[in-house]
Amino acid sequence: MSKTTTSRATTSRIWNFDDLNEWEDATQVGIPNYWFKDGILHIFTNANTWDRTKIKSIATYTTGTYSWRVYVPTMGVGDCASIGAFLYSDDTHELDFEIGYGKETVRQGLNAVSDDLIVYATSQANPSHSFQSKIKRGQWYTLSITLALNSQKKYIATWKIDNSILTSTTLTYGSSTKFKIFCSVENLSFIGDHIPYTQNYALFDWVEFK
Asked: Which GO terms describe its molecular function (predicted)?
């Protein structure tokens, strides 16, 4: 279910996850591992697989603020599993939040402790940009990416968690590139040290664009 409110400047949309209305399956590997209950999307990947479970918006969007309300649970130690909240146009126009246990080398570099996970804020290309930080497991967070235009009509992308800025970068492209919005849990090799030994999951309460 979605709600739409319109003002002079912008159209705001918020999706509460009662179903896939205005969204579609985007699973790449494995079967679609998700369900909806009480307005929350439950999404997971299985142990000993390279499952890539995700959904995406049917419509595309440009400038504005994209927000995801996400529960970040305990994740398997060393598991290559990532919670994703991201924007995708194509492989060289993609902006991500990805959260997982993290490789041990990255955890050591960030002085991560046992209840820390690693969050990546990333532009995949044009230009490549990656910022890593720590995030506590077992909590709800609001993740957001804001896209604004500079004087050269290029996007400035800003990543925030609970309204605190993580990082920002100027992209080489602007609003001719439109994005679909994604929610995912994927077993990906970059964010851990071994194939997942456990089932990993995330909860998405809502997604908003304004």
From this structure: hydrolase activity, hydrolyzing O-glycosyl compounds
What is the number of helices (H) and of strands (E) in the chain? 1, 16
Question: What is the SS3 assignment for 106?
Answer: helix
- Strand 34-37 versus strand 164-170 pairing type: unpaired
Domain ranges in the chain are 50-209
Taking 90 as the threshold, does the pLDDT of residue 12 lie above it? no
Q: Give the predicted TM-score (pTM) of the model.
A: 0.94
171/5 Cα distance (integer angstroms): 29
Contacts of 76 (CB under 8 A, 6+ apart): 47, 101, 196, 197, 198, 200
Q: Write the DSSP symbol of residue 100.
A: E
107: three-class secondary structure by DSSP? helix
What ranges make up the beta strands (E) of 18-163? Answer: 23-25, 34-37, 40-45, 52-57, 64-72, 82-90, 93-100, 116-123, 129-136, 139-149, 155-161
Is 171 within 8 Å of 154 (Cβ atoms)? yes
Q: What's the rounded mean pLDDT across residues 77-106?
A: 98
**Tell me, what amino acid is at 2?**
S
Looking at residue 11, its pLDDT comes to 73
Work out the average pLDDT over 178-196: 98
Fold entry, domain 50-209 = Jelly Rolls (2.60.120)
Q: Write the burial class of residue 142 (CB in 10 Å: 0-12 exposed, 13-18 middle, 19+ buried).
A: middle
